Amino acid sequence: MNSSLLSETVVALGVAAAALVGAGIGLAVSAPVATGAAVAAAGVAVAVAAWRLARITAVCRRVTAVAERIAVGDFEARVLGIREGGELGRLQHAFNDAIDRCDAFVRESAAAMAAIRDNRYHRRILPKGLHGAVRGASETINQAMEVIQRRVAAFNADTAAFESAIGRVVDAVSGAAGHMKSTAGVLGQGATATRDSAKVVETSSEHASTNMETVAAATTELAASAREIGRDVNRSAAIAREAVAKVEHATQTIASLSSATERIDEIVELINAIAAQTNLLALNATIEAARAGEAGKGFAVVAQEVKSLAGQTARATEDISRSIVEVQTTMRAAVEAVTAIGSTMTEVDQITAHVAEAIEAQSQATQEIARNVEQAFAGVREISETIRRVTDHATDSERHAGLTMSASGGLAEQSAALGDSVKEFLTSLKRAPQRDAPAA
Amino acid sequence: MSSQPRPTHREVHFDPDDLIVSKTDLKGRITYANRVFCTVCGYSEAELLGQPHSIIRHPDMPRAVFKLLWDTIQNGQEVFAYVKNMARSGDFYWVFAHVTPSYDGQGHIVGYHSNRRVPERRAIEAIAPVYAEVLREEQRHANGKDALAAGYRRLIDFVNAQKMPYDELVFAL
């Protein structure tokens, strides 16, 4: 089979032509045997040529069938069972080689493009075994893939940097929002506690205020009664002083009464002496009368009368003396009693003075208390007002803390949403080529 | 074909500008072999057509590599592999095989296609000891299934140790 069908056909046709020429010469020179032989040879040669042509036609048909399949993109088609050598054999092998290289290029470029579709960028068309325009196209595609790979790498680096930057921002914001939320929570709790405490203080100060009013009223009453007592004590002191003066007067009266009794005593002594003298005279007269006898009898009676009068006078003066002594004794007792009353009165006076001083001091102390209570009352009123303002501020703080808390929650949500959106956006950017790819 | 050739230690080469091309049906039977393929392996087209592709399998090749190859292409993906093949003469030749599924107009896999190129020498020097190691692992097991599983594990361990996917690793060798 190594000889070529085509050359065999050409040889057969040549032989036929030569035989026909020989036959013509035979006819011209009238050599019937030679002519017949030549015609027979020509016939054989034509038959051989025709058989060879039939086979060439069969080869053409096979190659055409494969070419038609290739033309519609069926790269599985090849010329199989090539038995022909020579030009026709080379033609069919060369045809298969051409298809093989085109097939290789199609598979390589499809694989490289599929790799890019699947985000794999290392895949290159293998240029080995490819030649000419196909190799040139492969290299162009490889350069394009190189560029794509670099751009994708740069894009990935940029998006990664962007993602991490956004991530940091989101983390920072959500961290800050967390802090803000917890701070607002603490603030709100503090404000609530302040408000509660302030309410307690308000109630206490109102209570204190009421108590202060009661104390102030009691103090005022106390001051009034102290003033009243002071007035009474002063009156008592005046009375006591008056009593002392009267006691002194009484003492003087009694003293003058005492000197009067002493003078009565002297007079009684004098009367006593006169009575004793009279008695002696009466006795003398009696003796004289007796000497005179009858003539002196009348006289003796008068002398007896005078004697009894003198006795009576002596007895009366004795009575007076006893009475005077009694009077003097009573008077001394009276003087002692009056003196005692006087000193008592003096004591009363001194005590009253002390009491008056004490009352005065008490009155001043009470006024001091009243002033202090008034000041304390003012202080408590101020506390009440301050506490009311504190309560208002605490309520405000509580409300703001609540607002801050919900705002921080919103902020955290928004920042998380931002992070998610960016992540989604970047993912969709990176995946975009794959998603857009048609199903294989 | 009737008798398996005995491997020699002689390496044969083919032109770096050439492609060894073959196609198989879904079961791995050869449906097309190009002229370069026939020349290098020493079998005629007629001898190759209808035969399993393992006709050129070299005994130095671990089965785990073919498992990886088949698993990948049956999944509809392309696969690259360095393969040591054996010619009819028992000589060997290394190829850098690119195997891809062929699809019909409806997207069904109708067969597989393999383009083999002349591999980089340093890649062969890197992969040959790994294959030898995997093969030794397979030979430690009498049971074929266990052998394949153990070899496959060893191969995957090697890939994982390189910290890159297999399809990138084959180009990095």
UniProtKB/TrEMBL annotation, chain A:
Organism: Rhodoplanes serenus
Membrane topology listed for this record: Multi-pass membrane protein
Pfam families to which the protein is assigned, alphabetical: HAMP, MCPsignal
Keywords of this entry: Cell inner membrane, Cell membrane, Membrane, Transducer
Principal place of residence: membrane
Subcellular location: Cell inner membrane
Keyword Transmembrane helix: no
GO terms of biological process kind: chemotaxis; signal transduction
Family recorded in the similarity comment: Belongs to the methyl-accepting chemotaxis (MCP) protein family.
InterPro entries xrefs: Chemotax_Me-accpt_rcpt, HAMP_dom, MCPsignal_dom, T_SNARE_dom
One function term, GO molecular function aspect: transmembrane signaling receptor activity
Single GO cellular component term: plasma membrane
Protein name, per record: HAMP domain-containing protein
From TrEMBL, chain B:
Gene3D superfamilies in alphabetical order: PAS domain
InterPro entries, alphabetized: PAS, PAS-like_dom_sf, PAS_fold_3
TM annotation in the entry: none
CDD domains attached to this UniProt entry: PAS (cd00130)
A Pfam family of this chain: PAS_3
Matching PROSITE patterns: PAS
Protein name: PAS domain S-box protein
